[in-house]
Write a structure and sequence with these properties.
Mean pLDDT of chain B: 87
Low-confidence stretches of chain A: none
Structural class of chain A: alpha/beta
CATH superfamily of one domain in chain A: P-loop containing nucleotide triphosphate hydrolases
Largest sheet of chain B: none
Oligomer: heterodimer
Number of strands of chain B: 0
Helix content of chain B: over 70%
Number of domains of chain B: 2
Strand content of chain A: 15-25%
Shape of chain A: globular
Number of helices of chain A: 9
CATH class of one domain in chain A: Alpha Beta
Largest sheet of chain A: 6 strands, mixed
Order of helices and strands of chain A: EEEHEEHEHHHHEHEHEEH
Strand order of the largest sheet of chain A: 6-7-8-3-9-10
Radius of gyration of chain A: 18 Å
Radius of gyration of chain B: 23 Å
Order of helices and strands of chain B: HHHHHHHHHH
Low-confidence stretches of chain B: none
Distance between the termini of chain A: 35 Å
Distance between the termini of chain B: 47 Å
Structural class of chain B: mainly alpha
Strand content of chain B: under 5%
Largest interface: A-B, 36 and 28 residues
Chain lengths: 249, 255
């Protein structure tokens, strides 16, 4: 049984624009899936349904076979969503306070919050910056902070929305390494991006969205050669393989 | 933003930094009430001694604080001048400016003294208390007040302090972008302001939407883990000292 599934998911905005249409996608436990698509292809709207932030016009989202609306708090705890703009995700005045935001929302006992926060910070390598203001961090560190904030809620599935946007080379490597480590630790990973060259080598599956529809879905090496048909840069050089794309050395 | 020492927490390991912030806020209220009743020089001296003792105990940088006091100096000077000219009474003998009354100057000086002491007491409070703790204290005091959602109010305070620097950064970025396109050559100030205000408002509202989604994604709830406060015996002694200052000012003869 898939850990996360969408069935005929459709979202139409009040002005009549169809953001996503009839999307059925199954995500299995422990899988690493990349969802790619050009700007406006509906990727972000799609993942916001996976966390119950948006309510579909039709269709449904199932978590472990149960509709997401059955227990929305449990769903949000299970599925961590990391936004594209880290600044908008930061609500704490210190790094540690921001990480504590999620566990405090879950009304965990204070002792547990105080135990979880350093663990989450250590997992992303930000322990030394616990007392610092989040807005003094670099782009890569802010993404790591966003990851720590989600890890503190003990999610099984982590969704990254355009995790590499605006990062320099070391920042991309930092974030990519973090994503791969989370996958190796057993988390199910969903990465939304149009920069396939940065992450595809580590993915088990590639899905491509085009004009709000699921256009392709399958093994990366089978799908990637058609990427340019959907407005996504083909990351492979002539004769290259997906496995060679990794930015991690 | 310009580095301002006032109203910024300066981390130190002192008695006042460790003090239970609920009692610290209560001390500030008591001292402010006491100062507002101050009339005789002895009253002012007692309050000033209390604030200076707090400043030194907290190891706050006095020269930097006094430098930042300039901002309030302007307000104090305006009040002093207004009082000096508007309160009727006999003029000061041989004073070169006509129309300045002696009771006006005395009242203005008293007000200036009160305001200075209160501002310095506030500086001690904010200089020794992090915004997070301050937010928790506000939430704690609001909890028994009916019809006020204390968690929501506290979160609003928190978000305000988190987002003011971001909005300011955005403003600076927009100003630079507009200057790069020679917007400063426009003569009409209203047009110039509208070029900044409207996009800034639009971006701020979009960011507000994003933050709402981000908070929802992290299970935002008003039934949250409550903050924990620790009260030490010394905290009660400090509170007693503030109460003693109030009693002294209320009952010590004015003349």
């Amino acid at each position: 049984m898939p850990v996360l599934e969408t069935q005929n998911l459709t979202h139409i905005f009040p002005d009549g624009t169809a953001a996503i249409q009839d999307i059925s996608l199954r995500i299995n436990a422990g899988e690493f899936i990349v969802i790619a698509g050009a700007n406006g292809s509906g990727k972000t709207v799609f993942i916001r349904h996976l966390n119950g932030l948006l309510v579909p016009t039709s269709g449904r989202v199932l978590i472990d076979g149960e509709p997401i609306g059955k227990n929305i708090t449990a769903a949000r705890q299970k599925i961590g969503l990391i936004f594209q703009d880290s600044d908008s995700q930061i609500v704490g005045q210190t790094v540690a306070e921001d990480v504590a935001f999620g566990p405090e929302n879950l009304n965990l006992p204070r002792e547990e919050v105080e135990r979880i926060v350093p663990e989450a910070l250590a997992a992303v390598g930000l322990s030394d910056l616990a007392a610092q203001s989040p807005h003094t961090l670099s782009g890569g560190q802010k993404r790591k902070l966003a990851v720590a904030g989600i890890l503190a809620m003990r999610p099984e599935i982590i969704i990254f929305d355009e995790p590499f946007t605006g990062l320099d080379y070391p920042g991309v490597v930092q974030v990519l390494r973090q994503i791969v480590q989370l996958h190796q630790a057993g988390h199910t990973i969903v990465v939304i991006t149009h920069e396939l060259e940065k992450v595809l080598a580590h993915a088990d599956r590639l899905a491509i969205f085009c004009r709000g529809r699921l256009a392709e879905n399958g093994a990366p090496e089978n799908i990637v050669i058609r990427a340019e048909n959907y407005g996504i840069r083909l990351p492979l050089r002539h004769g290259g393989t997906v496995g060679e794309l990794t930015w991690l050395r | 933003m310009a580095p301002v020492t006032f109203f910024h927490c300066i981390p130190r390991d002192t008695l006042l930094h460790r003090m239970d912030a609920r009692l610290k806020l209560l001390c500030l209220v008591l001292l402010s009430v006491a100062v507002s009743f101050a009339v005789a020089p002895a009253h002012y001296l007692a309050a000033l001694c209390a604030v200076m003792a707090a400043l030194f105990t907290a190891e706050l940088p006095l020269p930097a604080l006094l430098k930042d006091m300039k901002i309030f100096g302007v307000i104090i000077a305006i009040v002093l001048v207004v009082d000096a000219f508007s309160i009727p009474g006999p003029p000061i003998p041989n004073f070169p400016v006509p129309g300045v009354s002696l009771p006006g100057v005395v009242t203005g000086l008293r007000f200036a003294g009160r305001l200075t002491i209160i501002i310095m007491a506030c500086a001690v409070m904010t200089g020794t208390t992090s915004l997070l703790t301050f937010k928790n204290v506000v939430e704690w005091y609001l909890r028994p007040v009916p019809f006020i959602p204390e968690a929501r109010v506290a979160m609003m305070i928190n978000l305000t302090f988190v987002f003011i620097p971001l909005i300011f950064d955005q403003y600076v970025e927009m100003m630079s972008a507009q200057k790069a396109r020679c917007a400063d050559l426009r003569k009409n100030p209203i047009r110039r302001i509208s070029f900044i205000v409207l996009p800034l408002l639009s971006r701020t509202l979009r960011r507000t939407d994003e933050i709402v989604y981000a908070m929802e994604a992290r299970c935002y709830s008003e039934t949250r883990t409550r903050p924990r406060f620790k009260t030490h015996p010394a905290d009660w002694l400090i509170l007693a000292a503030a109460a003693a200052a109030l009693v002294f000012i209320l009952y010590y003869p004015c003349a």
